[in-house]
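Table S2 (continued). Query chain:
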Amino acid sequence: MDYKYSAKTEQNEAKAVGMAMPISFKQSVEVCSHIRGRGVQDSISRLNRVVQGLAAVPYRRYNRGGVGHRPGMAAGRYPQKTCAEIIKVLEDAQANAQHKGLDTNKLVIKHISAQKAAKQSHYGRKRRTTMKRTHIEVVVKEKK
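Corresponding output:
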């Protein structure tokens, strides 16, 4: 299946996509905005700290409904499952960059976005219960 990225890529860039991942769209938007523009190694280490429960992701857009304050920031949460899935996509993009001959130590996240995927229904008698699905696309660029 050919996937159309929303960002155009150049010669010194690599890309990866995670299709229909079982993670929350709202959490994915917050995590993507947290790591956008950072280095890939730095982003992976930050997300690993969130998975371990040592650091929180600041919530700026979807922070209504009782999102509490965290030390050193305003509203924030620990979306561990979302961060674990986004780490996999970042590692895929890093492997694609290495395959293209780019230096993996100088990679910076140029573009990362979360998009809603098709809703998949749960199996069984009860209707109208759907699973959360999200597409994640990443474009990394080699910094000179």
